[in-house]
């Protein structure tokens, strides 16, 4: 027995079916290294250690702390806690990798410039008060005009942005020394942006952009417009060759990646979002067509992230998609989906997102019931107080009873039938197989995935971070996911949890990236309302 004060008692040759009395007075002091698992934490060699202070990386992200639930009480989660994102590149053309972090409203993106010593010097990108009114959801580092340096495309967004000018994206050109100046961006769009992905999709030598958008501000779940932007010799224009409906109606986009999914040597587009299926658009000489595939269309998730790798080394690019995870009370499956009805029940001009999930009734059968609590529904609209006058009657009301009311006629209906983080195997010829990862990958939302193919072990590694500390007041946060490192196995993956590897406890981790410093590699992990972490692999 290990006592709370660290003393140790041991009794040998115990008789069965007898009461054993152990007294603290006879306990002995024992060296900590003599106490074995499971009475103490299992000792395993730590492969990583936190090193941010050794490299001058000192940054604490601050969120604007606007209360999303004060405007839309029925939200599944806070919609404002998505940043910061990390983008890595040589910003001042000195041959060293630097990085920049996106920012919340009221704060500036932060530049980190690497010096020859391996130390980083950070500075705010903006100081002007008007610039700080933008929420920078994502950043693209790309060479706009092919002059040899990295320029910045800043994606604007924000659940609470009421003025259109603060939803317009911004373009900053680099003088080659990490000094940036804004130039006018003549794009007739202003959306609640979420992600930007760059590639030369038309083969003209200039980097083009896809910009994804989430919901319209204060109108969840009504999706905002995503756009495809063509770089015409240094001038950014909307690509008008694509049908408007192709990219404008993608749903609430959370991530996008360019990848040659069909093996024809050009870049195709993969897009995921909340309450959306897996969407792939193949590139045919600069024109895009959506892949119509039941395996993709039938997996509608609360998707958060995309990573690309060739898992089976067959030449086809596979995917790992981060999702909300299964550590929840929603019972999401193809037969018992979560359904969202977007309706203005009291005709006051605001969207009421009514959620239904399947739960067991008194007879043990699954039926669809409202997810939100009655009190919360009443606070959103007096309609629900008029419809039910007792908790008992509300507790028995199924989706079927709600839909009898004419106010639900014409509602936009969204669905989630896949909650798991998954591996999507590319079988070739436009065929895919979606398989959930093991339970360790399902304990919480997976917000970002890093594919590291240049690790010390000379094998491809997958690093996953996540959690969500923006849970609604009635359910709380999703914070059980400590992070995972996956390595390739003959069948699937091998899984190692971050704490066992030496990674410190993470909160709401929003992004993970790799950066080279003096011939070594650091793993950067950004956290919403938390400290930027840097981890270094110990030498084998």
**Strand elements, count:** 35
- Radius of gyration computed on alpha carbons: 26 Å
Output the number of helix runs: 7
Biggest sheet descriptor: 5 strands, antiparallel
What is the global morphology?
A: globular
Share of β-strand residues: 35-45%
- Low-pLDDT regions: none
Global mean pLDDT? 93
Helix content: under 10%
Class per helix and strand makeup? mainly beta
Amino-to-carboxy terminus distance? 36 Å
The quaternary organization reads as single chain
Write a structural description:
There is one protein chain. With 540 residues, the protein is mainly beta. Strands 16, 17, 18, 19 and 20 form a five-stranded antiparallel β-sheet that branches. The protein is globular. The chain starts with 6 loop residues before the first strand and ends with a strand. The model has no long low-confidence stretch (mean pLDDT 93).
Short description:
The protein has 540 residues and is mainly beta. The protein contains seven helices and 35 strands. Strand 4 (86-89) and strand 5 form a beta hairpin.
Topology, element by element:
Elements: E1 7-8, E2 28-29, E3 48-50, E4 86-89, E5 98-101, E6 110-114, E7 120-124, E8 135-142, E9 151-157, E10 170-174, E11 180-183, E12 193-199, E13 208-213, E14 227-232, E15 235-238, H1 244-248, E16 252-259, E17 268-276, E18 279-284, E19 287-290, H2 294-297, E20 301-302, E21 305-309, E22 318-322, E23 338-343, E24 352-360, E25 366-370, H3 374-380, H4 383-387, H5 391-395, H6 399-403, E26 412-416, E27 422-428, E28 431-436, E29 446-452, E30 461-466, E31 484-488, E32 493-497, H7 498-501, E33 509-517, E34 520-527, E35 533-537
């Amino acid at each position: 027995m290990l006592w709370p004060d660290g003393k140790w008692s041991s009794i040998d040759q115990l008789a069965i079916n007898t009461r054993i009395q152990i007294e603290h007075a006879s306990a002995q002091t024992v060296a900590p290294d003599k106490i074995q698992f499971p009475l103490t934490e299992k000792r395993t060699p730590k492969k990583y250690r936190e090193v941010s202070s050794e490299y001058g990386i000192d940054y604490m992200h601050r969120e604007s702390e606007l209360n999303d639930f004060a405007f839309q009480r029925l939200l599944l989660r806070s919609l404002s806690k998505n940043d910061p994102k990390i983008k890595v590149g040589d910003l001042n053309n000195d041959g060293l990798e630097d990085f920049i972090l996106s920012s919340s409203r009221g704060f500036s993106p932060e530049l980190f410039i690497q010096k020859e010593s391996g130390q980083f010097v950070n500075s705010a990108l903006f100081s002007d008060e008007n610039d700080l009114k933008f929420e920078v959801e994502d950043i693209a580092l790309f060479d706009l005009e092919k002059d040899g340096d990295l320029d910045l495309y800043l994606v604007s967004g924000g659940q609470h942005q009421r003025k259109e000018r603060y939803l317009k994206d911004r373009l900053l050109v680099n003088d080659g020394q990490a000094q940036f100046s804004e130039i006018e961006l003549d794009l007739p769009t202003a959306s609640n942006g979420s992600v930007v992905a760059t590639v030369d999709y038309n083969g003209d030598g200039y980097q083009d952009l896809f910009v994804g958008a989430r919901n319209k501000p204060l109108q969840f779940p009504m999706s905002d417009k995503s756009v495809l932007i063509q770089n015409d010799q240094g001038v950014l224009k909307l690509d008008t060759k694509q049908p408007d409906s192709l990219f404008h109606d993608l749903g609430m986009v959370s991530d996008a990646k360019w990848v040659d999914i069909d093996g024809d040597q050009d870049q195709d587009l993969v897009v995921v979002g909340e309450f959306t299926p897996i969407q792939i658009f193949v590139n045919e000489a600069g024109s895009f067509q959506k892949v119509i595939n039941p395996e993709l269309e039938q997996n509608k998730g609360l998707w958060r992230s995309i990573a690309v790798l060739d898992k089976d080394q067959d030449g086809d690019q596979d995917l790992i998609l981060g999702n909300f995870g299964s550590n929840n009370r929603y019972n999401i499956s193809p037969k018992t989906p979560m359904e969202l009805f977007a309706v203005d029940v009291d005709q006051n001009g605001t969207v009421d997102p009514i959620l239904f999930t399947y739960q067991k009734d008194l007879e043990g059968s699954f039926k669809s019931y409202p997810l939100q609590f009655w009190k919360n529904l009443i606070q959103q609209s007096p309609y629900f107080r008029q419809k039910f006058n007792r908790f008992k009657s509300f507790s028995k009301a199924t989706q079927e009873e709600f839909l009898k009311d004419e106010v639900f006629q014409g509602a936009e209906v969204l669905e989630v039938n896949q909650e798991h983080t998954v591996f999507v195997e590319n079988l070739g010829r436009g065929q895919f197989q979606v398989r959930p990862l093991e339970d360790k990958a399902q304990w919480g939302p997976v917000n970002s995935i890093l594919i590291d193919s240049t690790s010390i072990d000379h094998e491809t590694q997958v690093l996953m971070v996540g959690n969500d500390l923006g849970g609604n007041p009635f359910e709380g946060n999703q914070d059980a996911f400590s992070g995972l490192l996956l390595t390739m196995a003959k069948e699937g993956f091998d899984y190692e949890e971050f704490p066992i590897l030496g990674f410190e406890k993470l909160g709401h981790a929003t992004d993970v990236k790799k950066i080279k410093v003096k011939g070594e590699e650091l793993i950067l992990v950004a956290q919403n309302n938390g400290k930027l972490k840097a981890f270094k692999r110990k030498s084998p």
